[in-house]
Amino acid sequence: MLAEVDAFISKPLRHYRQAQWDLEYLQLIYQGQKIEIGLAPGTTIYCQQRQQWLPLAIDFAKSVTVSYQGMSLPVMPITSLITYKQWLAREVDIIDIQELSAITLTKNG
User: Fold this and answer.
1) What is the pLDDT along the chain (109 residues), one digit of tens a residue?
2) Whole-angstrom Cα distance, residue 100 to residue 97?
3) Can you give the pLDDT at residue 1?
4) How far apart are CA 42 and CA 53, in angstroms?
5) pLDDT value at residue 2
6) What is the rounded distance in angstroms from the CA atom of residue 65 to the CA atom of residue 46?
7) What is the rounded CA–CA span in Å between residue 48 and residue 88?
8) pTM (two decimals)
9) Residue 96, Cβ density class (10 Å: 0-12 exposed, 13-18 middle, ≥19 buried)
10) Could you give the CA distance from residue 84 to residue 47 in angstroms, rounded to a whole number?
11) Which one of 4, 29, 88, 95 has the lowest number of neighbouring Cβ atoms within 10 Å?
């Protein structure tokens, strides 16, 4: 895969610790879109509510399959995504939570 994306890498795969994230990932910029691909084991995020670092335990067995441009892709369930965005509680996460909650209500309502 690296040979295919090498020209688009804006941040190489390595360990990054920022205000809210402590993980290994790489970042691509493809057609103006930022794409981040992270490694799950060992990832922690800063929980604003608890004022502490918490492990981001991703259960890949709970992934849901969605169709996108003719491909079937496994993705994190919306409820799991909302939970970790609640922990981060950045302005962008609050907006995401509102939009994701609306999707959840539409599906369940």
Assistant:
1) 778 899 999 999 999 999 999 999 999 999 999 999 999 889 999 999 999 999 998 899 999 999 988 999 999 999 999 998 999 999 999 999 999 988 876 666 5
2) 5
3) 77
4) 12
5) 78
6) 28
7) 6
8) 0.75
9) middle
10) 8
11) 4
- The token duo for 3 is 């040979």
* Spatial CA neighbour of 21 closest among 96, 92, 87: 87
Reading the block at residue 50, the tokens are 């608890």
The DSSP-derived string for the chain is: -HHHHGGGEEEEEEEEE-SSEEEEEEEEEETTEEEEEEEEEEEEEEETTTTEEEE----GGG-EEEEETTEEEEE--HHHHHHHHHHH--HHHHHHHHHHHHHHHHHH-
